Amino acid sequence: MNTLPSSPGAERTGGPAVRIGALVPLTRPGWVEAGHHLLAGIELAVRDVNEAGGITGRPLEVVVRDTAADPRRAAAAVDELARLGAAAVAGEYHSVVARAAAARADALGLPFLCSSAVLDALTEQPTEWVARLAPAQSHGWRVYADFLLGAGHRRIAVATQPSVYWASGTRILRDHLAPRGGTVVELDASTLDPAALCDEVARRRATALLLLTGHPEPAVSIVRAVRRDPRLAAVVIGAPAGQPEFAGWAESLGGDGAAVPFLRYLPERLTPLGTRVGAALRERLAEAPSFVAFEGYDTVAVLADVLRSHGVDRARAAGSWPRVAVEGTRGRIRFSRAPGISVWQWTWPPLQVVDRDPAAPDRFRILHSG
Description:
The chain is an alpha/beta fold. It is built from 12 helices and 17 strands.
């Protein structure tokens, strides 16, 4: 069992530990870098909660389970965490994995606060048991589509791979762009190699190519091919799913990875809590924290508030989502019912379209805010 120790001060308080579960991708084929950032935020928040006295005098303990981007593994982990007496489950980055976890949590009556997954249909039917911090895909990707339109792009190619998440993103883009004069051309990156994909982008006269693919491959190879193709010198490469957020992107691509706009769930200025947490995360990670790390911290901050206010009874905790009002690292967090969204949703986290500055790829430029 992978658990985080409580702080020494919290261990001296009365009562058994309050246990929560954390679902995190820590091994391949999961996005390991995202998983480490998510876990760093969760770990830091658990430490802070315990240093502040825990959950009404009881230490907060987190049981971490590696999902490895496997929906079945995530569902099994939710089963295990329920048997271990977890008061709630937190985390997950991959949308398809979070959907499996949400379905299982709903079936078991176990509160699940999803940190980072954005797929609109997180559960098939409306549920009282699941809430989410990350913005729904339909919200964020429409903002991204508006950014493309504002930058003058009307002919947009998308390099995709088979996935519910990528298919959903393609549909959102097409539905939003078509009434506004935009067209979306879908290119299957699982059958077209990077050179053939470049040929199609040139033939279709697209002015933007969006990477709706996994990272590092085939995303890295596609970027390199486009950057070296003189026919595509004016084509903007985009990555709405956020692949360029992490240091591994810059390490793999160097200057080729700059000027690739992506969605980032941060405000222009963090809250005072966010500024303090950001400094602590930087020290813990030995690099700049991503927005995913802040999502991890905010997840535990919300759960701690819920458990302090409403106790560890699962039904009472889940029933408290609409009454949450927590100052997080990125703003005040409240949950509501959004049209077309089946879970309790923070409406909405701050959202930006940013890219890495070609003059300094470790620096980000804000291009658009939503």
